[in-house]
C-alpha cells in the first residue's frame, strides 16, 4: 500500500494549493490583463467571416456569449477545424478512446470477467484517463546501446502516419480533410509506412525480442498487403473511381457493395486483422513467446503513442471497410429540419450532415466491434499458417471476387447505365 | 503565371533540398541504416516532385513501391549484413575530387542537352494534355501484340522465380534429413 512521506501535513498541502492560486491571480491581473488589452487595441485582429473582430465586439462577446455565434459559424467551416476537430484528429482520437474502454469491458464480459470497475464509480469509465495519467508520469527508459534518434522518432512517426490515414476518410458529404482523386492508392501508400516504422523501431531498440517481433511484423504486413489491395480493387472496378467520396456516392446510387463483393469484404476484414497485428494475427506482439514483440522496450509515453497510433489505425481500417463495402455515410435523415421551432440554425446545424455523420459513426463502431471480437474467442495462429493463408488463399479469393465484379460490369448489371443503378 | 511560380517556388526549393540532401546523406554516411533511411526520404522527395507536376497517381505509386517496398527491402538487408566487412578501402582526396568533377560534367552535359532541346520552348507547356483514354485504346488495339508479349514475359519470370524458390526449399529439406 502506498504511504505518505513522514513530514506530510494536510494543512500544508491545502496551503500550497492556495499559494499557487494566489500567484496565478496576481500574475494574471498584473501581466495577463494588460497584455490582453495591448493585443486587442494595438494588433490588428483578423476578420472572422462577415464581421471584423474589433476590441469592442470582443468585449461584448465576453458579456453576451450569443454574439460569438457568427464566429463559430465561420470557424467550423475552416480547414483548421477539419484537420483538428471533426473529420480529422479529435473525432478519430475520441472514437479510439471509446474503443479502448469498450474493448476492455467487452472482452471482460465475453470471458466472464469484470474488467475496469473502480475509477469513475460507474463501470470504471474513467479508467482510460487514469491510464493516460500513469503513462505520462512514467519515466521513459531508453535501452543502452539503442539508436537514440530512431528510437525517439519512430513512435511519433507511427502516430503521424496513422493520423494521416484518417485525413483521407470522408465522414459526411463534403466533410473530408483531403478529397483527392487517388484516395484509395494514397491510403495504401500511407499504410506502406507501417512495416518500415516497426522494423526501424525494433532495430533501434537494440534487443533481440523486439527485433524478432519487427521481422515478424514485416513479413506479416507485406504478405497481407497484396490481398488487401486486390480486395479493394474490385470495389474500384464497381465504382469506377479511386476517389473515396465517389466510391460512397456510387453505393448510394446503387446498393452496398458488400452484397456484390462478399468475398472481397471477407478478405479485406481478415487482412485488416493482420495489418493491425490483432489476435489471431498478433505474432509481432506475441506476449507468451517474445515478451511484447517489437514494443518490448517501450515505456511511458512512447508506449502510449504507439497504442494511440494502433487504435487510430483500427479506426481508419474500420472506416475504410465502411466506405468500401457498407455504403459510407448512407442512411435515412433522422434529425429534424429545425434545431428548435422557428430556428433552422443555418451553417451550424445541418440535419443531412448530422445524420450522415451519425450513420457513419454507428457503422464504423460496429466494424470496430467486429475487429475486436476475435480477440475474445480465438488463439494465436502459427507463422507458417499465417503466411500460407496470406499468399496462397486470400489472394486467390480476392481474385475470384474481382472476376465477379468484372462480370457484373460487362453484364450490364452495375456500372454506367446498369440495371441496379438508381 | 508569375503568381503560380511565386506560390510553387519555396515548395520546389524545399523539396529539392530534401531530395538532394538526403541523397548525399545516403551516399556519405558511415551508418548504413541512416544511408537507407536517407534513400527513403530522397524517394519521398521525388514523389513530392510528381505531386508538383500534377501527377498524383505516379506520386502515390512512387511512395507505395519505392518507400513501401524497395526501401524496406534495403533496410531489411542492411540490418542483416555486417557493416565492418564492407568498408575496407579508404577514400582519398583525389578520388573524391574526380567524382565531383565527373558529376559536374555529366550534369552540365545533361543540362546543355535539355536547354537546346524543344523542351525549353515556351509552347511545350501549352500543348494539349495527354488523353489517357486514347492511350488505353491504343494499348488494347494497335499495340495489343506488344502488350501480350509483355504479359507473357512477366508471367514467365514470375513462374521462374517461383520455381527457383521451390527448388531451394527442397534442398533445405534434404539438408535437414542428412
List the helices and strands and how they pair.
The complex is a heterodimer of chains A (422) and B (178).
Chain A: H1 10-42, E1 47-48, E2 51-52, H2 55-63, H3 69-75, H4 79-84, H5 89-110, H6 127-137, H7 148-166, H8 183-191, H9 193-204, H10 208-239, H11 244-253, H12 262-275, H13 301-325, H14 351-372, H15 374-377, H16 383-410
Antiparallel strand pairs in A: 1-2
Helix pairs in contact in A: 5-13, 5-14, 7-8, 7-9, 7-13, 9-10, 10-12, 10-16, 12-13, 12-16, 13-14
Chain B: H1 2-28, H2 32-52, H3 56-79, H4 93-116, H5 132-140, H6 144-177
Helix pairs in contact in B: 1-2, 2-3
Walk me through what this model shows.
The complex is a heterodimer of chains A (422) and B (178). Chain A is mainly α and 422 residues long. In chain A, 62% of the residues lie in helices and 1% in strands. Chain A has 16 helices and two strands. The termini of chain A are far apart. Chain B starts with a helix and ends with a helix. With 178 residues, chain B is mostly helical. Chain B has helices at residues 2-28, 32-52, 56-79, 93-116, 132-140, 144-177. Chain B folds into three domains: 1-83, no CATH class; 93-121; 131-178. The chains are: A mainly alpha (422), B mainly alpha (178). Chains A and B meet through α8, α9 and α10 of A and α2 and α3 of B.
How would you briefly describe this protein structure?
By secondary structure, chain A is mainly alpha-helical. Chain A has helices at residues 10-42, 55-63, 69-75, 79-84, 89-110, 127-137, 148-166, 183-191, 193-204, 208-239, 244-253, 262-275, 301-325, 351-372, 374-377, 383-410, and strands at 47-48, 51-52. The longest helix of chain A is centred in the first third of the chain and has 33 residues, at 10-42.
Amino acid at each position: 500500500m502506498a504511504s505518505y512521506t513522514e513530514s506530510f501535513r494536510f494543512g500544508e498541502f491545502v496551503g500550497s494549493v492556495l499559494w499557487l492560486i494566489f500567484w496565478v491571480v496576481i500574475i494574471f491581473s498584473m501581466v495577463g490583463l494588460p497584455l490582453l488589452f495591448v493585443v486587442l487595441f494595438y494588433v490588428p485582429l483578423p476578420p472572422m467571416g462577415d464581421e471584423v473582430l474589433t476590441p469592442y465586439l470582443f468585449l461584448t462577446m465576453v458579456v453576451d456569449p450569443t454574439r460569438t455565434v457568427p464566429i463559430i459559424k465561420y470557424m467550423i467551416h475552416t480547414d483548421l477545424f477539419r484537420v483538428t476537430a471533426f473529420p480529422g484528429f479529435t473525432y478519430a482520437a475520441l472514437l479510439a478512446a471509446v474503443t479502448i474502454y469498450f474493448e476492455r469491458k467487452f472482452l471482460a464480459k465475453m470471458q466472464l470477467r469484470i474488467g475496469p470497475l473502480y475509477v469513475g464509480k460507474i463501470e470504471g469509465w474513467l479508467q482510460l484517463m487514469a491510464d493516460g495519467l500513469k503513462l505520462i508520469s512514467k519515466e521513459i527508459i531508453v535501452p543502452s546501446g539503442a539508436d537514440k534518434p530512431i528510437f525517439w522518432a519512430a513512435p511519433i512517426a507511427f502516430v503521424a502516419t496513422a493520423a494521416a490515414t484518417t485525413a483521407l476518410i470522408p465522414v459526411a458529404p463534403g466533410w473530408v480533410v483531403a478529397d483527392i482523386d487517388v484516395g484509395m492508392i494514397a491510403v495504401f501508400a500511407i499504410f506502406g509506412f507501417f512495416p518500415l516504422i516497426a522494423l526501424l523501431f525494433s532495430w533501434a531498440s537494440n534487443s533481440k525480442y523486439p527485433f524478432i517481433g519487427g521481422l515478424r511484423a514485416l513479413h506479416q504486413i507485406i504478405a497481407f498487403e497484396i490481398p488487401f489491395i486486390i480486395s479493394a480493387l474490385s470495389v474500384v472496378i464497381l465504382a469506377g473511381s479511386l476517389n473515396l467520396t465517389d466510391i460512397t456516392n456510387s453505393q448510394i446510387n446503387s446498393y452496398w457493395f458488400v452484397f456484390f463483393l462478399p468475398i472481397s469484404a471477407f478478405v479485406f476484414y481478415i487482412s485488416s486483422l493482420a495489418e493491425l497485428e490483432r489476435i489471431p494475427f498478433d505474432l509481432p506482439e506475441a506476449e507468451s513467446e517474445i515478451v511484447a514483440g517489437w514494443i518490448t522496450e517501450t515505456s511511458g509515453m512512447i508506449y502510449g503513442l504507439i497504442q494511440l497510433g494502433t487504435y487510430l489505425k483500427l479506426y481508419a481500417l474500420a472506416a475504410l471497410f465502411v466506405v468500401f463495402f457498407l455504403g459510407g455515410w448512407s442512411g435515412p435523415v433522422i434529425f429534424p429540419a429545425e434545431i428548435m421551432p422557428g430556428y433552422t440554425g443555418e451553417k451550424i446545424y445541418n440535419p443531412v450532415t448530422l445524420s450522415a455523420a451519425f450513420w457513419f459513426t454507428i457503422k464504423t463502431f460496429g466494424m470496430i466491434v467486429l475487429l475486436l471480437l476475435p480477440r475474445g474467442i480465438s488463439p494465436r495462429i502459427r507463422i507458417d499458417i499465417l503466411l500460407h493463408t496470406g499468399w496462397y488463399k486470400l489472394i486467390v479469393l480476392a481474385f475470384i471476387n474481382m472476376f465477379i465484379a468484372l462480370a457484373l460490369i460487362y453484364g450490364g448489371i452495375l456500372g454506367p447505365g446498369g440495371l441496379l443503378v438508381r | 503565371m508569375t503568381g503560380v511560380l511565386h506560390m510553387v517556388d519555396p515548395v520546389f526549393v524545399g523539396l529539392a533540398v530534401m531530395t538532394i540532401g538526403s541523397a548525399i546523406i545516403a551516399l556519405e554516411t558511415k551508418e548504413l541504416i541512416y544511408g537507407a533511411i536517407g534513400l527513403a526520404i530522397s524517394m519521398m522527395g521525388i514523389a513530392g516532385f510528381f505531386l508538383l507536376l500534377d501527377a498524383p497517381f505516379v506520386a502515390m505509386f512512387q511512395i507505395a513501391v519505392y518507400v513501401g517496398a524497395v526501401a524496406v527491402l534495403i533496410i531489411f538487408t542492411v540490418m542483416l549484413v555486417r557493416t565492418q566487412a564492407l568498408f575496407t578501402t579508404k577514400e582519398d582526396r583525389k578520388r573524391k575530387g574526380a567524382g565531383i568533377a565527373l558529376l559536374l560534367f555529366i550534369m552540365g552535359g545533361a543540362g546543355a542537352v535539355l536547354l537546346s532541346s524543344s523542351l525549353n520552348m515556351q509552347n511545350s507547356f501549352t500543348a494539349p494534355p495527354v488523353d489517357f483514354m486514347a492511350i488505353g485504346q491504343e494499348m488494347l488495339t494497335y499495340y495489343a501484340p506488344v502488350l501480350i508479349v509483355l504479359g507473357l514475359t512477366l508471367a514467365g519470370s514470375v513462374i521462374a522465380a517461383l520455381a527457383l524458390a521451390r527448388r531451394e526449399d527442397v534442398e533445405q529439406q534434404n539438408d535437414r534429413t542428412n
